[in-house]
Structure formats: C-alpha cells, structure tokens
UniProtKB/TrEMBL annotation:
Gene3D superfamilies: NAD(P)-binding Rossmann-like Domain (3.40.50.720). Belongs to the short-chain dehydrogenases/reductases (SDR) family. InterPro entries: NAD(P)-bd_dom_sf, Sc_DH/Rdtase_CS, SDR_fam. It comes from Scytalidium lignicola. This is Uncharacterized protein. Keywords: NADP, Oxidoreductase. GO terms for cellular component: cytoplasm. SUPFAM superfamilies: NAD(P)-binding Rossmann-fold domains (SSF51735). GO terms for molecular function: oxidoreductase activity, acting on the CH-OH group of donors, NAD or NADP as acceptor.
Length: 288
C-alpha cells in the first residue's frame, strides 16, 4: 500500500542545508509538518521558515551524535506536531579534516562514524519504538510509519582516501536491509537512497575533495535526489529494506551482490590525485 506523506509529520536530521533542505521543502509543499533537526540554523533555512504556510516547519537544534539530543528532538516533535510518521536520517559528514581517518585529529572516537551511522541507528530505534504502537490497529498491508536513511554509492566502493565514510555508508545500507521484516510484520517501512555525487557544500566548499572531480563528471542536484527520496518512501514499488541507487538520470535497487554503479555521476575521474596525496603522507610516516 502506498504511503502518502501529504499532511504527515516528519523529522529530518541535517535538514538545514543541501539534500535534506531540498527534501524538507518537498515535504512542506505536500502539507507535511516537519521538524528540521540540525546542529545550527542556516540562512537558507531561516528564509524558508519565514514563508507563510498552514503547516508547521520548525527548527530544533540537534547533534545527532548525541543520543540525548535525539531523544529531546523526538519529545519536541511529539509536543509540537504529534506522532512521527517519517524519520529521515539525513545528517552526515564526508570525512572532514576534524574527523578523518588519515588526519589523526581525534583522540577518543571517530565522529564521522557517530554522525553517519550510530546517530542514524539510534534515530531509527526511537522511530520504531513510537511507530510500532500503531501496528495493533493497522489494516492489512498498511504502512503505518517510515524511516528513510541516506546511504551513498561509497557503500559499494573501496575508496582508500575516505575509509570512515565508506565504512559508515556501507553500514547504513546493511542496517537498512536488516530491518526489512519490519514492513511486513508491523507496517514500518525502512528504506534508503544511495546517491552518487550531489552538488552540495560537502563537495563545493572543500577544494581538497573537488580535486578528485573532472569537468566532465556530473553531479545530481539536491532537488533531483529529494524527488527520489520522496518516491522511495511513498511508492509501494519499494518495500522495506530497499536501497535505491540514484545517479544522474538513473535509479536502480541495489542488493549486496549488485555490480558496481556505472553512468554519469557514479565516478570521480581524478580520484588518483587524492590517492597519491594520501600515499605520500604514509610514505613520510614510514620514513620518519
């Protein structure tokens, strides 16, 4: 059974910018109430919040690496908009300098893993605890709630330069697939999108990463990916456990044994530039 998000309530982590802000706008246009959970409010979000509408779009400061913050965000959602129909675990980082496997900037934990994977898992658990209560009264084949996770094509690639990112996104895809039985048993649909390169600040504001991109490499726009995010949640074509690959002008459902992605937006033509830089760093470590 299709699961329309029109008039529903959603939490979108990382919703203040990029892909997730584009998704927030889509949800708002469908009349959904949305809690935008992010580490800080951005100017584009502030401007969007000022627009007049009948539904509620509210910002809640949230650090997804903090389980306490996530619990407080769910409590806030219940008090302001009511039950959470959709949990979109969108917050993520692309192996920044402050949480980078090769940079050795962290002493106690890898925040990239905490943000990209652990927080996503806990956000999902909170959503399941709430949504499963609706299973008793659900109709046959009815979807009573949904969880949308943001994975990446990096889940299928072994990129030497970004091991934390690849590992965390592989975890997201695997985690999503393991929760497939929730859909049939309880009507809770857990799905994911695995996009290729998307033109967001995660890329454009980091020259060290843009070195891997050639002029002929194609990006998805945040709006294009947001449309795919909406589709995988709403359409009954995609059951729980689906991981939907999204690249330029192409989508496909990917399983653990699927071949590697191909087509525009699926590869970085100059990745060897960054590879050589990392190997140069390791060579210095070897000889020091």
């Amino acid at each position: 059974m299709a699961f329309s998000l029109a008039g529903k309530n959603a939490i979108v982590t990382g919703g203040a910018s990029g892909i997730n802000l584009a998704f927030v706008k889509l949800l708002a246009n469908k009349g959904a109430n949305v809690i935008v959970a992010d580490i800080q409010e951005t100017k584009p979000l502030t401007n969007f919040l000022k627009e007049k509408r009948s539904n509620q779009i509210l910002f809640k400061k949230t650090d997804v690496s903090s389980f306490q913050d996530l619990r407080e965000t769910f409590d806030y959602a219940k008090k302001t908009v009511g039950k959470v129909d959709l949990m979109c675990n969108g917050a993520g980082v692309f192996e920044p300098e402050w949480s980078n496997f090769w940079a050795d900037t962290e002493k106690d934990t890898y925040q990239s893993i905490n943000i990209n994977l652990s927080g996503l898992m806990y956000g999902s658990r909170l959503a399941i605890r709430e949504q499963i209560k609706r299973a008793k009264s659900r109709k046959p084949n009815e979807t009573v709630g949904a969880i949308l996770n943001i994975s990446s094509l990096a889940a299928q690639y072994a990129l030497f330069n970004t091991p934390l990112y690849c590992a965390s996104k592989a975890g997201v895809s695997s985690f999503t697939r393991t929760l497939a039985p929730l859909h049939e048993e309880y009507g809770i649909k857990v799905v994911a999108v695995a996009p290729g390169m998307v033109k967001t600040p995660l890329w454009t504001e980091h020259p060290e990463k843009m070195k891997a991109i050639a002029e002929n490499d194609e990006f998805l726009s945040p709006e294009e990916l947001a449309e795919a995010m909406l589709l995988v949640v709403e359409s009954d074509k995609y059951p729980g456990g689906t991981v939907l690959e999204v690249i330029k002008n192409k989508t496909r459902v990917i399983n653990v044994d699927s071949p590697l992605p191909s087509g525009p937006g699926s590869t970085m033509s100059n990745i060897e530039v960054i590879y050589e830089e990392t190997m140069g760093q390791l060579e210095k470590e070897r000889t020091s």
